[in-house]
Amino acid sequence: MRFLTGAVLLCAALFLSATRPASAGEVTLMPREDGAVEIGGRLLGFDGEVYRLDTIYGPLAVNAAGVTCAGAACPGEQVARIALSGSPALADMLMPALIKGFAAARGLVVERGAEGRDRLFRLRLPDGGPLRAEIALASGSTGEGFADLLTGAAQIVMADREILPEEIDRAREAGLGDLSAPFRRRIVALDAIVPVVAPDTRLGDPADGLSQAALLGLLTGEIADRSGPGGPEAPITVHLPGQAGQGLRQLPEARVLGGRRPVASARRHGRAAAVATAVAADPAGLGLARVSALGDAVQVPLADGCGTRLLASHQSVKTGDYPYVAPLSLYLGRPRLPRLARGFLDYLATPAAQIAIRRGGFVDLLRDEIPLGRQGDRLALAIAEARPGNGLRELKRLVATLGGAVRLSETFRSGPRGPDARWRANVAALAEALEAGHFDGRRLILAGFAEGSGGSEASAARARREAEAVRDAIRAAATAADYDRVRLEVAGFGDLLPVMCDGGSGKAGPEQSRDRPSGDWARRLNRRVEVWLR
Fold first, then answer.
1. Is pLDDT at 166 greater than 60 in this prediction?
2. Spatial CA neighbour of 189 closest among 307, 93, 45
3. Residue 60: exposed, middle, or buried by beta-carbon count in 10 A (0-12, 13-18, 19+)?
4. β-pair partners for 370
5. What is the reported pTM?
């Protein structure tokens, strides 16, 4: 027996059907080209692209493009079905708008089906035309999404946090492969975790901000009250997401606590938006909310003791200059998804989808340009933190290199285990732009920055190595780029232009040092590679 070239896969386990079997009957797949052999068997499934048959040779998968189907069990017009499960941030707020936009781009109309935890969206041709697709959304939690993936109730997980090691292990044991592999995760949008208080808070002026030490102390109960200026002591009520008696490990808010236990008296709320609502009505309340769902709550800046105040703005979240960014992602249950799912994933990268993401209150992934003139706070901090002599000379070199350039929103910060999903996504985005010629005739400067330790020369060398690693990754990804038309440069500026002061210069007095962020927090922000274009 001869097989159709490129059409038959001997391992049916590599194929994911998004539809139910059309029939249990027999069919014959006849080749479109002369000389190839017919294949007969019991039809197991068909998703519009691939037939799955149970044959005398075992289970086979055959590309529909190379055959025609004969037999009473041959499928007619197929309805693509796909199920997603996971975080309410995606299921309730973002995905419905993106499904509507995807349907409009395909010339389809959307009919809403079931509501509640499970929602169904039917996509059909206008004026009562044929049904083309059904997309089911199950809203629960990221953990529930991975559980649904294991049982086959979902093909895609909607996640607001990283996959946990035990979830990776369970998926591998279930035959789903390695869900931690880069190609199994797609970042859709960005959110951030922020401390919030009520508009009429009795806990002091929110604009003063909270140091990391103060925030952790309040959340863990080590600090039981916070006095307003000239006022009496004000007891704190802590509001957190999640169910009572459960930890925060399953939520992105866990990053703020860094493994420490919240105060036992913390009030828990089922959804992130409910935290903001509760805090807004509680003048003694302090909570952790999502910047996408602040409601009437007031965001409290993060303070570093040097006068810097960090807010989760569109710019600081997109560049990663705010420490508690929470990417919203899709984890793919199988490396190969049905055509509809692949089309939907492609749509998510379009400008139309990114505009819908921004309108939904989330931070989109479109590239922003930030002029050097809008770096005033960082330049002021750089001058204040600069070492005498060589420090000011290095600042002049920085201004000479980056003057007249704009900073792109792609910024590279490695995670605890090396390059993470955002790092790799930034590489892919810049590689695509280089190959498309978007930077032709210009200079792309990869500017490395390091934490304030080891001396200026050592910091500059370390920062340059980080920038060179990014450059090498971009070159490896952008194989079709014409480097005669664009200059890709690297520079290392050490501990210049810090996002937050980390005490590396040793210039802070005792009062400042007490309020400065812990070393890990500031170092993660300051150790980065920025992308500048001129």
1. yes
2. 93
3. buried
4. 407
5. 0.82
